[in-house]
Design goal:
Elements lengths: L1 H14 L6 E2 L7 H18 L4 E13 L1 E11 L6 E10 L5 E8 L1
Antiparallel strand pairs: 1-2, 2-3, 3-4, 4-5
Protein name: Cystatin domain-containing protein
Organism: Adineta ricciae
Keywords: Signal
């Protein structure tokens, strides 16, 4: 338990704040971000019946809660839309590593 508290304290110190989202440009090209975008794309397909193909991750921000919230903005294409879409996904990751999509929209 002590190790977990130390790890959380270090994480908070690195993040710089508790409560708000912090921009994380270091995660733009990270494999975990790519995996979360795939999770969001599947959620968009299932919940909104919209097929999208991600193109580029525009921004990533994190928020420390009882786990970590990720806010990911990415561009995508869809066969049912002309031009590019801008999608925003919020993915929650527990400290145990389980991930779930809190929200995902494209416009």
């Amino acid at each position: 338990m002590f190790k977990l508290l130390v790890a959380l304290s270090l994480f908070v110190a690195i993040q710089g704040q508790v409560g708000g989202f912090t921009d994380r440009p270091d995660l733009l090209n990270a494999s975990e971000t790519t995996a979360m975008v795939r999770l969001a794309v599947n959620n968009i397909k299932d919940k909104q019946n919209l097929l999208v193909s991600p193109i580029n991750v525009v921004s990533v921000a994190t928020q420390l809660v009882n786990g970590i919230n990720y806010r990911i903005v990415f561009t995508a294409r869809s066969p049912s839309a002309t031009g590019f879409l801008t999608c925003t996904a919020k993915v929650y990751q527990s400290f145990a590593g389980a991930q779930s999509v809190s929200s995902a929209t494209c416009a």
